[in-house]
Write a structure and sequence with these properties.
Length: 509
Amino acid sequence: MTIKRALISVFDKTGIVEFAKELDKLGIEILSTGGTAKALKDAGIKVKDVSDYTGFPEMMDGRVKTLHPKVHGGLLALRNNKEHMKQAKDNKIEMIDMVVVNLYPFAETVKKNLSFEETIEMIDIGGPSMIRSAAKNFHDVIVLTDPKDCSKILDKLKKQESISIEERKNLAKKVFEKTAAYDSMIAKYLETDEFPKDMIIPFEKLQNLRYGENPHQRGAFYKELMLNETSIVNAKQLWGKELSYNNIFDGDGALELVKEFKNPAVAIIKHANPCGVAERETIEKAFEDAYNVDPMSAFGCVIAMNRKCTMKIAEMTKGKFIELLIAPDFDKDALQFLKDNKKNCRILEVGRLTRSDKGYDMKKVVGGILLQSRRWPDIEKLELKCVTKRKPTKKELEDLRFAWKVNKHTKSNSVVFAKNKTGYGMGVGQMSRVDASIIAKRKSTGRANGGSMSSDAFFPFPDAVEAAAEAGIKSIIQPGGAKKDEEVIAKCNELGIAMVFSGVRLFKH
């Protein structure tokens, strides 16, 4: 196919002048609009305004400029259809063989928290319309929405190489992916129903992964386009080889856990569950104590902290096999030390930590997805109901709240044994609560004696309380609501354990 005429209309003008200059050298006529036309003219490029071509002025503050039959007819006309070409000639419609467009950045606009009216003005109408028309007629029109594609196609044009139908089809596919995601962002912004009838959540691929959860599975990492929160997705990798599927999953779990705490805190994660958590006055002490909870399980772990990584912490990593280290920031000397001494450790900087309860927790099932809100009550504001004769002390209440926060991030059935704001025993992923308690007891190795316990769900029987008592647990937080609550409460009274009901279940599958 021969390219005689190109329509260029871009919001992001990076590289567009250089691209247009090359088209001009090839003798390709350039149509353009508004700010793009001005930028090209200022660079000395010969440009025809779309309004001159259509004979219709831009109007309504630029809302109407390319929505015209002479534009869309020039894009949609089938060149091998005699009737199409006759109608085009009769209506003085000239063929447009290439469209170069990038859209108004709607997602970035939403993140600026502008007024509703200002945000609505950043909904692109003409751009999506043009690229959809061009993409539908990909046999006859080349449509470019990605700067990488611009350079590839330009190189072929300069070498007078043909652009295959498969290449043009792929460019068209990108358009429909882009406009589908774009429209879904707008719909999400306007949506008032938490669970709308048609659920479309826009994602953009960040990278292909070496493999998925296991080497025989393929994998990729996608970013939610409307996200505006500190997350593993927005992290900057400072060091180390490419993140794996499991690194990303465990990194997300570790980061979300340390975001629970206002004071310096560190979480050690292994296979999606914490194996050590500590909240301290200093981040260095939190790191030391969290790691020492279960050094054996921490082999090949992911570590997240909610304060800057200091040189002292970097030195504490020596001799430890750590897959991934996450922090808001890294001292310059600490980062250099890690680069020099932790060749196989990936390092992520996430910036200032922010939390949100917006968005969804999403799980895939065959043929569908399960969605639920991310909202959780604030344990500091929950009215805890003491149901035993013995009431928890002030210190025990602090540990109960700490254990509850950790418990939120463990796989069910689960319990957490804690003392002095340290998670010493995590019994997770069990089919029975008593087994979870037995595992937590074994993991805590006596260090939770006199400590507190959180259970993610109610106790169906008193046996888990008995297992906790054997570990020296003196206070328990649980949702309550079991048929045998009275038996469980009686057992706590018999064993001298204080128990409070939170009324909130923490199941996590």
